[in-house]
Amino acid sequence: MARKESITIQDILHTAFEMTREEGFVNVTARKVAAKAGCSTQPIFRVYKNMEDLCGAVYLKTIAFFWDYYDLFPRTSNIPFVNLGMAYIAFAREEKHLFRLLFLTEVEEKKSLYEVLNGDKGNVLTEINKAAASGCKDPQAMFMRMWLFIHGAACMSLTGDYDLSDIETKKMLEQEYANG
User: Fold this and answer.
1) What's the predicted TM-score (pTM) here?
2) Residue 143 burial class via C-beta count within 10 angstroms: exposed 0-12, middle 13-18, buried 19 and up
3) Is the dihedral of CA 26, 94, 113, 116 positive or negative?
4) Where are the domains of the chain?
5) Which of 4, 69, 145, 153 is 20 to 30 Å from the Cα of 171, by its Cα?
C-alpha cells in the first residue's frame, strides 16, 4: 500500500509564501522551504518542476494577496487615485518583502506594474474613469503624475525615509489631484 502524502502542494506554496513575506524572496531556497515545511526537498520537486516554478507560484500568490489587501483597504477619500495610492504606500510599509517582490524585483514572466495594480477588477481603470467623470481633462496623465509621488513615497517607506503620517499623505495626494 502506498504511503499517504503528508506534504501537499498547498503546504509547500504556503511555506514559501510565508518565507518570502518574513525573509524576502531571495532567501527562498528548496532546502530552506523543506526545512521549514518539515520535509525533504523531494516533495517540492515532485509537485514543482524546479525552483523557478515554485517561485512563479509564490509570485502569483503574492499578486492575489495584494489584490485582497487592496480590496479590504479602507476607502477614506472620494478623490480619484487617493485610496489606491494610500493602499499601495501602506502595503509597502506593512509588507516590505512582498512589495519588493511585486514592484521592485525582476522575476520570470513578471507582470507590469499596471497589470498588478489594475488587477482582475480594473482598479486603475476605475480610478481613471472616476477622474474623467469628475472633469479631469487628461486622467491618464493625472494618474502618471500622481503615481510618481505614490511610488516614490512607497519606496521611501521601505528604507525608513518616509515619515509622513497617513493623514499628511492623504492630504498631499488630494492636493496634488486638485492642482493637476
Assistant:
1) 0.92
2) buried
3) positive
4) 9-179
5) 69
Dihedrals phi, psi of 7, to nearest 5 degrees: -110, 120
Contacts 24+ apart (CB under 8 A), 12-15: 12/37, 12/43, 12/44, 12/47, 12/48, 12/54, 13/54, 13/57, 13/58, 13/61
- pLDDT (average), residues 41-59: 95
pLDDT over threshold 70, residue 45? yes
Task: Quote the CA–CA distance of 44 and 35 in Å, as a whole number.
Answer: 11
pLDDT of res. 107: 81
Superfamily assignment of 9-179 in CATH? Tetracycline Repressor, domain 2 (1.10.357.10)
Q: Which residues contact 88 (CB under 8 A, 6 or more apart)?
A: 117, 150, 151, 154
Residues 6+ apart with CB under 8 A from 116: 63, 66, 102, 103
